[in-house]
Write a sequence for this structure.
Protein backbone atom coordinates (compact mmCIF):
# COMPACT_ATOMS: atom_id res chain seq x y z
CA UNK A 1 0.00 0.00 0.00
CA UNK A 2 1.11 3.53 -0.69
CA UNK A 3 1.22 4.35 3.01
CA UNK A 4 3.19 6.79 5.08
CA UNK A 5 5.37 3.90 6.27
CA UNK A 6 6.93 3.90 2.80
CA UNK A 7 9.01 6.97 3.59
CA UNK A 8 12.20 6.50 1.61
CA UNK A 9 13.02 9.78 -0.14
CA UNK A 10 10.49 11.94 1.72
CA UNK A 11 11.48 15.42 2.86
CA UNK A 12 10.58 17.40 5.94
CA UNK A 13 11.05 14.75 8.64
CA UNK A 14 13.75 16.76 10.39
CA UNK A 15 17.23 15.98 11.70
CA UNK A 16 18.42 12.66 13.08
CA UNK A 17 18.21 12.70 16.87
CA UNK A 18 20.75 10.39 18.42
CA UNK A 19 20.44 9.68 22.14
CA UNK A 20 23.61 8.95 24.08
CA UNK A 21 23.57 5.81 26.24
CA UNK A 22 20.11 4.96 25.03
CA UNK A 23 18.38 2.19 27.00
CA UNK A 24 17.01 -0.84 25.12
CA UNK A 25 13.51 0.03 26.39
CA UNK A 26 12.71 3.54 27.58
CA UNK A 27 9.72 2.37 29.62
CA UNK A 28 8.79 -0.99 31.09
CA UNK A 29 5.66 -1.23 28.94
CA UNK A 30 7.76 -1.08 25.75
CA UNK A 31 9.50 -4.32 26.69
CA UNK A 32 6.15 -5.90 27.55
CA UNK A 33 4.77 -4.96 24.10
CA UNK A 34 7.89 -6.36 22.48
CA UNK A 35 7.57 -9.67 24.35
CA UNK A 36 3.78 -9.99 24.09
CA UNK A 37 3.92 -9.69 20.32
CA UNK A 38 6.44 -12.55 20.08
CA UNK A 39 4.58 -14.69 22.61
CA UNK A 40 1.31 -14.33 20.71
CA UNK A 41 3.07 -14.79 17.38
CA UNK A 42 4.03 -18.26 18.61
CA UNK A 43 0.40 -19.34 18.16
CA UNK A 44 1.05 -19.33 14.42
CA UNK A 45 -2.11 -17.36 13.67
CA UNK A 46 -0.18 -14.78 11.71
CA UNK A 47 3.26 -14.35 10.21
CA UNK A 48 5.81 -11.55 10.13
CA UNK A 49 4.32 -10.07 6.96
CA UNK A 50 0.81 -10.01 8.44
CA UNK A 51 2.01 -8.24 11.57
CA UNK A 52 4.09 -5.76 9.57
CA UNK A 53 1.13 -4.96 7.37
CA UNK A 54 -1.06 -4.37 10.41
CA UNK A 55 1.37 -1.64 11.52
CA UNK A 56 1.15 -0.10 8.05
CA UNK A 57 -2.63 0.08 8.50
CA UNK A 58 -2.30 2.46 11.46
CA UNK A 59 -3.74 5.72 10.12
CA UNK A 60 -1.06 8.02 8.65
CA UNK A 61 -1.44 10.82 11.19
CA UNK A 62 -1.27 8.35 14.08
CA UNK A 63 1.64 6.50 12.48
CA UNK A 64 3.74 9.66 12.40
CA UNK A 65 2.66 10.88 15.82
CA UNK A 66 3.12 7.62 17.71
CA UNK A 67 6.35 6.18 19.04
CA UNK A 68 7.56 2.89 17.60
CA UNK A 69 6.23 0.74 20.44
CA UNK A 70 2.95 2.64 20.57
CA UNK A 71 2.34 1.84 16.91
CA UNK A 72 3.27 -1.77 17.53
CA UNK A 73 0.82 -1.96 20.44
CA UNK A 74 -2.10 -0.45 18.53
CA UNK A 75 -1.55 -2.79 15.58
CA UNK A 76 -1.16 -5.73 17.95
CA UNK A 77 -4.52 -5.03 19.61
CA UNK A 78 -6.23 -5.00 16.23
CA UNK A 79 -4.48 -8.20 15.17
CA UNK A 80 -5.47 -9.98 18.39
CA UNK A 81 -9.11 -9.13 17.74
CA UNK A 82 -8.95 -10.02 14.04
CA UNK A 83 -7.55 -13.44 14.90
CA UNK A 84 -10.20 -13.91 17.61
CA UNK A 85 -7.81 -14.09 20.55
CA UNK A 86 -9.67 -11.34 22.38
CA UNK A 87 -12.93 -9.49 21.93
CA UNK A 88 -13.69 -5.80 22.44
CA UNK A 89 -15.91 -6.89 25.33
CA UNK A 90 -13.00 -8.59 27.05
CA UNK A 91 -10.85 -5.51 26.61
CA UNK A 92 -13.65 -3.44 28.05
CA UNK A 93 -14.17 -5.73 31.02
CA UNK A 94 -10.44 -6.28 31.53
CA UNK A 95 -11.04 -9.99 31.99
CA UNK A 96 -11.99 -13.05 29.94
CA UNK A 97 -15.57 -13.51 28.83
CA UNK A 98 -17.51 -15.75 31.23
CA UNK A 99 -17.13 -19.40 30.35
CA UNK A 100 -13.94 -18.94 28.34
CA UNK A 101 -11.73 -21.99 28.59
CA UNK A 102 -8.18 -21.35 29.73
CA UNK A 103 -5.54 -22.16 27.10
CA UNK A 104 -2.02 -23.46 27.58
CA UNK A 105 0.46 -20.76 26.47
CA UNK A 106 2.08 -21.43 23.10
CA UNK A 107 5.38 -19.85 24.12
CA UNK A 108 7.08 -21.36 27.17
CA UNK A 109 10.41 -20.09 28.52
CA UNK A 110 12.14 -22.96 26.75
CA UNK A 111 10.44 -22.16 23.45
CA UNK A 112 11.26 -18.48 23.95
CA UNK A 113 14.94 -19.37 24.26
CA UNK A 114 14.71 -21.45 21.09
CA UNK A 115 12.93 -18.64 19.26
CA UNK A 116 15.69 -16.21 20.22
CA UNK A 117 18.44 -18.63 19.21
CA UNK A 118 16.92 -19.99 16.00
CA UNK A 119 14.52 -17.29 14.82
CA UNK A 120 12.00 -17.95 12.10
CA UNK A 121 13.79 -18.50 8.77
CA UNK A 122 11.95 -17.32 5.66
CA UNK A 123 14.15 -19.02 3.08
CA UNK A 124 12.52 -22.06 1.51
CA UNK A 125 14.19 -25.18 0.28
CA UNK A 126 11.92 -25.66 -2.71
CA UNK A 127 12.81 -25.71 -6.39
CA UNK A 128 12.21 -22.37 -8.09
CA UNK A 129 13.76 -21.20 -11.31
CA UNK A 130 15.45 -17.81 -10.98
CA UNK A 131 14.24 -15.35 -13.60
CA UNK A 132 17.42 -13.29 -13.30
CA UNK A 133 21.12 -13.66 -12.65
CA UNK A 134 23.86 -11.50 -11.22
CA UNK A 135 24.93 -8.73 -13.60
CA UNK A 136 21.60 -8.64 -15.40
CA UNK A 137 19.88 -5.32 -16.04
CA UNK A 138 16.35 -5.18 -14.65
CA UNK A 139 13.51 -2.77 -14.15
CA UNK A 140 11.42 -2.66 -10.97
CA UNK A 141 7.76 -3.04 -11.80
CA UNK A 142 5.48 -0.09 -11.37
CA UNK A 143 2.95 -1.68 -9.07
CA UNK A 144 0.63 0.06 -6.61
CA UNK A 145 -1.12 -2.67 -4.66
CA UNK A 146 -3.54 -1.60 -1.93
CA UNK A 147 -2.24 -4.51 0.16
CA UNK A 148 1.21 -5.24 1.52
CA UNK A 149 4.33 -4.92 -0.61
CA UNK A 150 8.03 -4.53 0.13
CA UNK A 151 8.68 -2.69 -3.12
CA UNK A 152 9.09 0.95 -2.04
CA UNK A 153 7.62 3.69 -4.19
CA UNK A 154 10.97 5.33 -4.75
CA UNK A 155 12.23 2.31 -6.72
CA UNK A 156 9.16 1.54 -8.81
CA UNK A 157 9.76 1.81 -12.53
CA UNK A 158 13.49 2.33 -12.01
CA UNK A 159 16.30 0.51 -13.79
CA UNK A 160 18.87 -1.43 -11.82
CA UNK A 161 21.35 -4.27 -11.94
CA UNK A 162 21.12 -7.61 -10.15
CA UNK A 163 24.00 -7.77 -7.71
CA UNK A 164 23.43 -11.25 -6.29
CA UNK A 165 20.82 -13.98 -5.96
CA UNK A 166 20.04 -14.80 -2.32
CA UNK A 167 18.05 -17.93 -3.09
CA UNK A 168 14.39 -18.73 -2.54
CA UNK A 169 12.34 -16.81 0.02
CA UNK A 170 8.73 -16.37 1.10
CA UNK A 171 6.97 -13.63 -0.91
CA UNK A 172 5.51 -11.03 1.47
CA UNK A 173 2.87 -9.60 -0.88
CA UNK A 174 0.86 -12.83 -0.71
CA UNK A 175 2.02 -14.06 2.70
CA UNK A 176 0.78 -10.87 4.40
CA UNK A 177 -2.75 -11.68 3.26
CA UNK A 178 -2.76 -15.43 4.03
CA UNK A 179 -2.60 -16.10 0.29
CA UNK A 180 0.33 -18.47 0.49
CA UNK A 181 4.10 -18.17 0.66
CA UNK A 182 4.65 -18.21 -3.11
CA UNK A 183 8.41 -18.90 -2.63
CA UNK A 184 10.62 -17.31 -5.26
CA UNK A 185 14.12 -16.02 -5.83
CA UNK A 186 15.19 -12.92 -3.99
CA UNK A 187 17.98 -10.65 -5.24
CA UNK A 188 19.99 -7.67 -4.17
CA UNK A 189 19.45 -5.12 -6.91
CA UNK A 190 21.70 -2.09 -7.29
CA UNK A 191 20.11 1.19 -8.34
CA UNK A 192 22.34 4.14 -9.19
CA UNK A 193 21.52 7.11 -6.98
CA UNK A 194 21.09 9.20 -10.15
CA UNK A 195 18.54 6.74 -11.54
CA UNK A 196 16.51 7.13 -8.35
CA UNK A 197 16.99 10.81 -7.55
CA UNK A 198 18.21 12.55 -10.67
CA UNK A 199 21.32 14.38 -11.69
CA UNK A 200 21.95 16.09 -8.37
CA UNK A 201 22.89 12.73 -6.80
CA UNK A 202 26.60 11.84 -6.68
CA UNK A 203 27.61 9.89 -9.76
CA UNK A 204 29.04 6.80 -8.07
CA UNK A 205 26.56 6.41 -5.20
CA UNK A 206 23.88 3.75 -5.19
CA UNK A 207 21.06 2.14 -3.22
CA UNK A 208 20.67 -1.64 -2.97
CA UNK A 209 17.23 -3.14 -2.43
CA UNK A 210 16.20 -6.74 -1.90
CA UNK A 211 13.71 -7.68 -4.57
CA UNK A 212 11.76 -10.80 -5.41
CA UNK A 213 11.22 -12.15 -8.92
CA UNK A 214 7.68 -10.75 -8.95
CA UNK A 215 9.02 -7.20 -8.50
CA UNK A 216 11.23 -7.28 -11.57
CA UNK A 217 11.16 -7.28 -15.34
CA UNK A 218 14.12 -7.79 -17.68
CA UNK A 219 15.44 -4.54 -19.12
CA UNK B 1 -13.00 -1.05 8.32
CA UNK B 2 -11.26 2.11 9.47
CA UNK B 3 -14.27 3.07 11.55
CA UNK B 4 -14.41 -0.36 13.16
CA UNK B 5 -10.76 -0.17 13.98
CA UNK B 6 -11.10 3.27 15.48
CA UNK B 7 -14.14 2.32 17.55
CA UNK B 8 -12.42 -0.77 18.76
CA UNK B 9 -9.32 1.11 19.79
CA UNK B 10 -11.32 3.87 21.40
CA UNK B 11 -13.14 1.24 23.44
CA UNK B 12 -9.85 -0.36 24.35
CA UNK B 13 -8.46 2.95 25.60
CA UNK B 14 -11.44 3.79 27.76
CA UNK B 15 -11.92 0.31 29.11
CA UNK B 16 -8.32 -0.42 29.95
CA UNK B 17 -8.05 2.82 31.83
CA UNK B 18 -11.27 2.14 33.73
CA UNK B 19 -10.29 -1.45 34.46
CA UNK B 20 -7.04 -0.53 36.13
CA UNK B 21 -6.79 0.02 39.84
CA UNK B 22 -4.20 2.44 41.22
CA UNK B 23 -2.27 -0.16 43.22
CA UNK B 24 -1.44 -2.04 40.03
CA UNK B 25 0.95 0.73 39.20
CA UNK B 26 3.08 -0.20 42.19
CA UNK B 27 3.43 -3.89 41.52
CA UNK B 28 6.24 -3.58 39.01
CA UNK B 29 9.73 -4.57 40.02
CA UNK B 30 12.34 -2.98 37.82
CA UNK B 31 15.22 -0.76 38.58
CA UNK B 32 14.69 2.40 36.58
CA UNK B 33 13.37 5.52 38.21
CA UNK B 34 9.97 4.95 39.68
CA UNK B 35 7.17 6.48 37.69
CA UNK B 36 4.61 7.78 40.17
CA UNK B 37 1.82 8.21 37.64
CA UNK B 38 1.87 5.48 35.00
CA UNK B 39 0.98 6.67 31.55
CA UNK B 40 -2.32 5.66 30.09
CA UNK B 41 -0.40 3.54 27.62
CA UNK B 42 1.44 1.70 30.38
CA UNK B 43 -1.90 0.91 31.98
CA UNK B 44 -3.39 -0.34 28.75
CA UNK B 45 -0.43 -2.60 28.09
CA UNK B 46 -0.59 -3.94 31.61
CA UNK B 47 -4.32 -4.60 31.25
CA UNK B 48 -3.79 -6.45 28.00
CA UNK B 49 -1.01 -8.56 29.49
CA UNK B 50 -3.23 -9.50 32.44
CA UNK B 51 -6.05 -10.47 30.10
CA UNK B 52 -3.80 -12.63 27.93
CA UNK B 53 -2.26 -14.29 30.98
CA UNK B 54 -5.68 -14.97 32.47
CA UNK B 55 -6.81 -16.56 29.21
CA UNK B 56 -3.76 -18.80 29.26
CA UNK B 57 -2.51 -17.31 26.01
CA UNK B 58 0.86 -16.09 27.28
CA UNK B 59 3.24 -17.21 29.99
CA UNK B 60 4.80 -14.41 32.04
CA UNK B 61 8.18 -16.14 32.56
CA UNK B 62 8.46 -16.52 28.77
CA UNK B 63 7.88 -12.77 28.39
CA UNK B 64 10.58 -12.11 30.96
CA UNK B 65 12.97 -14.42 29.09
CA UNK B 66 12.48 -12.42 25.90
CA UNK B 67 12.94 -9.05 27.58
CA UNK B 68 15.96 -10.16 29.57
CA UNK B 69 17.67 -11.52 26.45
CA UNK B 70 17.50 -8.21 24.59
CA UNK B 71 18.07 -6.00 27.62
CA UNK B 72 21.08 -7.86 28.97
CA UNK B 73 22.49 -10.48 26.63
CA UNK B 74 22.10 -9.59 22.98
CA UNK B 75 23.55 -6.30 21.84
CA UNK B 76 26.25 -4.57 19.80
CA UNK B 77 29.06 -6.21 21.81
CA UNK B 78 28.24 -9.37 19.83
CA UNK B 79 28.77 -7.59 16.53
CA UNK B 80 31.93 -5.96 17.88
CA UNK B 81 33.38 -9.41 18.55
CA UNK B 82 32.56 -10.47 15.00
CA UNK B 83 34.28 -7.36 13.62
CA UNK B 84 37.35 -7.78 15.84
CA UNK B 85 37.69 -11.40 14.77
CA UNK B 86 37.48 -10.40 11.11
CA UNK B 87 40.17 -7.75 11.63
CA UNK B 88 42.42 -10.27 13.36
CA UNK B 89 41.90 -13.34 11.23
CA UNK B 90 41.93 -12.99 7.41
CA UNK B 91 40.50 -16.48 6.91
CA UNK B 92 37.59 -15.66 9.22
CA UNK B 93 37.01 -12.38 7.40
CA UNK B 94 36.80 -14.25 4.11
CA UNK B 95 34.23 -16.67 5.56
CA UNK B 96 32.29 -13.76 7.05
CA UNK B 97 32.04 -11.96 3.73
CA UNK B 98 31.07 -15.08 1.76
CA UNK B 99 28.88 -16.98 4.25
CA UNK B 100 27.94 -14.60 7.04
CA UNK B 101 25.44 -16.90 8.78
CA UNK B 102 27.99 -19.66 9.32
CA UNK B 103 30.81 -17.30 10.28
CA UNK B 104 28.66 -15.44 12.80
CA UNK B 105 27.47 -18.77 14.21
CA UNK B 106 31.13 -19.69 14.82
CA UNK B 107 31.08 -17.08 17.58
CA UNK B 108 27.81 -18.42 18.92
CA UNK B 109 25.50 -15.74 17.51
CA UNK B 110 22.42 -16.07 15.32
CA UNK B 111 18.67 -16.37 15.56
CA UNK B 112 15.69 -14.07 15.56
CA UNK B 113 15.95 -11.22 13.03
CA UNK B 114 19.35 -12.44 11.93
CA UNK B 115 18.33 -15.65 10.21
CA UNK B 116 19.82 -14.53 6.90
CA UNK B 117 22.86 -12.31 7.35
CA UNK B 118 24.98 -10.39 4.85
CA UNK B 119 28.18 -8.58 5.85
CA UNK B 120 29.31 -5.52 3.89
CA UNK B 121 32.94 -4.45 3.99
CA UNK B 122 33.81 -0.78 4.23
CA UNK B 123 37.07 0.23 2.57
CA UNK B 124 38.85 3.54 1.88
CA UNK B 125 36.94 3.74 -1.42
CA UNK B 126 33.53 2.20 -0.56
CA UNK B 127 31.26 3.16 2.35
CA UNK B 128 28.21 1.00 3.11
CA UNK B 129 25.35 2.04 5.35
CA UNK B 130 22.15 0.23 6.30
CA UNK B 131 18.56 1.41 6.62
CA UNK B 132 15.04 -0.01 6.55
CA UNK B 133 12.86 2.60 4.87
CA UNK B 134 9.65 0.54 5.21
CA UNK B 135 9.83 -0.39 8.89
CA UNK B 136 12.81 -1.02 11.15
CA UNK B 137 14.61 -4.23 10.08
CA UNK B 138 17.90 -4.57 11.94
CA UNK B 139 20.27 -7.49 12.69
CA UNK B 140 19.28 -8.31 16.27
CA UNK B 141 21.68 -11.18 17.05
CA UNK B 142 24.72 -8.99 16.41
CA UNK B 143 23.45 -5.48 17.23
CA UNK B 144 20.52 -6.05 19.59
CA UNK B 145 17.31 -4.06 19.18
CA UNK B 146 17.62 -0.87 17.12
CA UNK B 147 17.95 2.58 18.67
CA UNK B 148 15.08 5.03 18.27
CA UNK B 149 16.85 7.09 15.60
CA UNK B 150 17.17 4.04 13.35
CA UNK B 151 13.40 3.49 13.53
CA UNK B 152 12.57 7.17 13.14
CA UNK B 153 11.14 9.00 10.15
CA UNK B 154 14.21 11.25 9.64
CA UNK B 155 16.64 8.36 9.23
CA UNK B 156 14.27 6.18 7.24
CA UNK B 157 13.25 8.95 4.84
CA UNK B 158 16.62 10.60 4.28
CA UNK B 159 19.16 7.77 4.21
CA UNK B 160 18.33 6.72 0.69
CA UNK B 161 18.02 10.19 -0.89
CA UNK B 162 20.69 12.04 1.09
CA UNK B 163 23.04 9.53 2.72
CA UNK B 164 25.95 11.96 2.80
CA UNK B 165 23.86 14.56 4.59
CA UNK B 166 22.77 11.94 7.13
CA UNK B 167 26.36 10.85 7.65
CA UNK B 168 27.42 14.46 8.24
CA UNK B 169 24.86 14.64 11.05
CA UNK B 170 26.61 11.66 12.59
CA UNK B 171 29.90 13.55 12.25
CA UNK B 172 31.20 11.73 9.18
CA UNK B 173 32.02 13.92 6.19
CA UNK B 174 32.97 11.56 3.36
CA UNK B 175 35.18 12.77 0.51
CA UNK B 176 33.41 13.06 -2.86
CA UNK B 177 35.49 10.24 -4.37
CA UNK B 178 34.27 7.66 -1.82
CA UNK B 179 31.43 5.55 -3.22
CA UNK B 180 28.41 5.41 -0.90
CA UNK B 181 26.24 2.29 -0.99
CA UNK B 182 22.99 2.37 0.98
CA UNK B 183 21.34 -0.98 1.73
CA UNK B 184 17.58 -0.75 2.19
CA UNK B 185 16.51 -3.85 4.15
CA UNK B 186 13.35 -4.57 2.19
CA UNK B 187 13.39 -8.36 2.74
CA UNK B 188 14.47 -10.74 5.51
CA UNK B 189 18.19 -10.32 4.85
CA UNK B 190 19.89 -8.48 7.66
CA UNK B 191 22.96 -6.39 7.00
CA UNK B 192 26.01 -5.81 9.18
CA UNK B 193 28.73 -3.39 8.15
CA UNK B 194 32.32 -4.47 8.67
CA UNK B 195 33.96 -1.11 9.37
CA UNK B 196 37.55 -0.24 8.45
CA UNK B 197 40.14 -1.14 11.03
CA UNK B 198 41.50 2.13 12.42
CA UNK B 199 45.15 3.12 12.38
CA UNK B 200 47.45 2.50 15.35
CA UNK B 201 45.80 -0.79 16.30
CA UNK B 202 48.47 -3.17 14.94
CA UNK B 203 49.44 -4.51 18.34
CA UNK B 204 46.01 -4.75 19.86
CA UNK B 205 44.41 -8.01 20.90
CA UNK B 206 41.06 -9.10 19.55
CA UNK B 207 39.46 -8.14 22.83
CA UNK B 208 41.00 -4.66 22.75
CA UNK B 209 39.88 -4.24 19.14
CA UNK B 210 36.31 -5.27 20.01
CA UNK B 211 36.22 -2.54 22.66
CA UNK B 212 36.82 0.08 19.94
CA UNK B 213 33.94 -1.04 17.72
CA UNK B 214 30.75 0.99 18.07
CA UNK B 215 27.19 0.13 17.15
CA UNK B 216 27.01 3.08 14.77
CA UNK B 217 30.06 1.89 12.85
CA UNK B 218 28.34 -1.45 12.25
CA UNK B 219 25.21 0.27 10.91
CA UNK B 220 27.55 2.28 8.71
CA UNK B 221 26.76 5.77 10.03
CA UNK B 222 30.22 6.32 11.46
CA UNK B 223 33.76 5.00 11.36
CA UNK B 224 35.66 3.30 14.15
CA UNK B 225 37.91 5.90 15.77
CA UNK B 226 41.57 5.08 16.45
CA UNK B 227 42.37 4.35 20.10
CA UNK B 228 42.72 7.41 22.34
CA UNK B 229 46.33 8.41 22.77
CA UNK B 230 47.46 7.49 26.25
CA UNK B 231 44.80 4.81 26.66
CA UNK B 232 46.14 1.43 27.67
CA UNK B 233 46.66 -0.64 24.55
Amino acid sequence: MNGVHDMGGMHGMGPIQEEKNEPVFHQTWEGRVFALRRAMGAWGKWNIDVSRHEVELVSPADYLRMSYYERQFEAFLVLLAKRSFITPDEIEAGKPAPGTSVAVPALTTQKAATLIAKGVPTSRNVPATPRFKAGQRVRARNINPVGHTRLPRYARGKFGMVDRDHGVFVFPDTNAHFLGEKPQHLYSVRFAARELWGEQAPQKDSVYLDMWDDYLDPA
Amino acid sequence: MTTNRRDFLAAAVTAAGAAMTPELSHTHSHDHEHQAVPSELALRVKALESLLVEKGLVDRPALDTLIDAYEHKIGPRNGARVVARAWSDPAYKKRLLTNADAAIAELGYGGMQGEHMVVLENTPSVHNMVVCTLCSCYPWPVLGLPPVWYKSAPYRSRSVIDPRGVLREFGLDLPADVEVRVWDSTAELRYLVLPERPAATENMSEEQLAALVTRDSMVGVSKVAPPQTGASA
